[in-house]
TrEMBL record:
Gene Ontology molecular-function annotations: phosphatidylinositol binding; superoxide-generating NADPH oxidase activator activity
Residues covered by the SH3 domain: 151-210
GO biological process, one term: superoxide anion generation
Species: Salvator merianae (Argentine black and white tegu)
Name of the molecule in the record: SH3 and PX domains 2B
Length: 258
C-alpha cells in the first residue's frame, strides 16, 4: 500500500491554550492523498524545530553552499516581542506561516514528502481532543480585544554565560535579559533576545526578582549528559537566515550545570 502524501495545507487561525501554561497554537487543516482532511495544532517552536531539521538534512537546498541554490522557504522569524502581547505576535505570524507551509509542500517530493515533513503534519494524540478554546480570529471579528485575554512574555535574566552547542540554540551572556516564549519540562526553554531566538538551558536563567521558578528548579536536578535536546539537530550548522550570530564567549553555563 503506497504511503499517503500531503496534498494541501492551510493555516486557519490561532488558538489560545492554558495547559501546561498559557501559549498559542496554530490551527492547521491538512488534506492527504487518501482523501482525508484533518486538523492539527502546532506551536511556533515546533515550526522552528522542523526548519532546523530541514536545513540540516538538505544543506544544498537550504543554500548552505550557495544561497542562489536555496529552495527551502524561509521560516517567518524574529518579531520584536517587547511591548507586544504574545497574541499580537501570533496573529502577525499567521499569514507568513501559512505561506511557509504552502511553499514547503510544493517542494520536490524528496523534500516535501520526507519523514520529517510527514511526521510534522501527521495527526498526534493531542490533536484528536483539543481544548474547547475559541479561535482568536473569531474574537477579533467580534471586536472585543479584551476578551482575548492577552498575555505578555515573562522576562528573565541570564545568570551565567552559555555557548550554543546546536544550531537550534542561541548563546547567552550573563546579565542579558531574554523573553520566555516556551518553557519545556525537559529543561530547555525557547527564548527571544533583541537579535535572535532559540533554545537555551533553563538553569542559565533567573526571573527578574531573583527567584528561579519551578520549571527551572526541576531542570537543575537532571545532569547535563542526560538532558534531551528539543530536536536532534547536527551541530555543524549555524543559521544566519533565521537569526544573527551567537552572543558571548566561553560557555561557562555548562560548568554551572555540571
Amino acid at each position: 500500500m503506497p504511503r499517503k502524501s500531503i496534498l494541501e495545507v492551510k493555516v486557519l487561525d490561532v488558538q489560545k491554550r492554558r495547559i501546561p501554561n498559557k501559549h498559542y497554537v496554530y490551527i492547521i487543516k491538512v488534506t492527504w492523498s487518501n482523501g482525508s482532511t484533518e486538523a492539527i495544532y502546532r506551536r511556533y517552536s515546533k515550526f522552528f524545530d522542523l526548519q532546523m531539521q530541514m536545513l540540516d538534512k538538505f544543506p544544498m537546498e537550504g543554500g548552505q553552499k550557495d544561497p542562489k541554490q536555496r529552495i527551502i522557504p524561509f521560516l517567518p522569524g524574529k518579531i520584536l516581542f517587547r511591548r507586544s502581547h504574545i497574541r499580537d505576535v501570533a496573529i502577525k505570524r499567521l499569514i507568513p506561516i501559512d505561506e511557509y507551509c504552502k511553499a514547503l509542500i510544493q517542494l520536490p517530493p524528496y523534500i516535501s514528502q520526507c519523514d520529517e515533513v510527514l511526521q510534522f503534519f501527521e495527526t498526534r494524540p493531542e490533536d484528536l481532543n483539543p481544548p474547547k478554546e475559541e479561535p482568536i480570529g473569531k474574537k477579533r471579528s467580534g471586536g472585543d480585544l479584551a476578551a482575548a485575554d492577552p498575555m505578555v512574555l515573562e522576562q528573565y535574566v541570564v545568570v551565567a554565560d552559555y555557548q550554543k552547542q546546536e544550531s537550534s540554540e542561541i548563546s547567552l551572556y550573563a546579565g542579558q535579559v531574554v523573553d520566555i516564549i516556551e518553557k519545556n519540562e525537559s529543561g530547555w526553554w525557547f527564548v527571544s533576545t533583541s537579535d535572535e531566538q532559540g533554545w537555551v538551558p533553563a538553569t542559565c536563567l533567573e526571573i527578574q526578582d531573583g527567584v528561579q521558578d519551578e520549571f527551572s528548579m526541576q531542570s537543575e536536578e537532571v545532569p547535563w549528559r542526560y538532558w534531551s535536546l528539543p530536536r536532534h539537530v547536527a551541530r555543524r550548522r549555524t543559521l544566519g537566515d533565521l537569526y544573527t550570530s551567537g552572543w558571548g564567549q566561553g560557555g561557562s553555563c555548562r560548568d554551572f550545570l555540571c
